[in-house]
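Figure 3 (text version): structure tokens given as input.
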């Protein structure tokens, strides 16, 4: 099964910004909602944000509302996550997958985001 490929992570200072990208092709990712998830060390993977196929509907976990923005470019099979005003608690490995229900695709390697205080 095709895995998504996440990129754009790195080290940022608190208050800084990063933009993540997820290249996700294949039938599983070709239609419907896509989302970003994250897993901090020692914690369960959690939902972060989701976007509908046309981009008209988005949703976010409360902890990132007003700071993160999800978007997508269907022509490029790519989903983005713009992260502003980063906090140390945003430190995690970030993944993308389908959203609106249990994620249906394979999990990729993710991209590490580390925010220093």
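Below: residues designed for each position.
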């Amino acid at each position: 099964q095709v895995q998504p490929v996440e990129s754009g992570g790195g080290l940022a200072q608190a208050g800084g910004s990063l933009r993540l990208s997820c290249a996700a092709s294949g039938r599983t990712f070709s239609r419907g909602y896509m989302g970003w998830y994250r897993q901090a060390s020692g914690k369960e993977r959690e939902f972060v944000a989701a976007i509908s196929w046309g981009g008209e509907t988005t949703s976010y976990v409360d902890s990132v509302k007003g700071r993160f923005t999800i978007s997508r470019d269907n022509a490029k099979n790519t989903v983005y996550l713009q992260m502003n005003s980063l906090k140390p608690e945003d430190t995690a490995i970030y993944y993308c997958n389908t959203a609106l229900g249990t994620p249906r695709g394979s999990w990729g390697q993710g991209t590490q985001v580390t925010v220093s205080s």
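The chain has no helices and ten strands.
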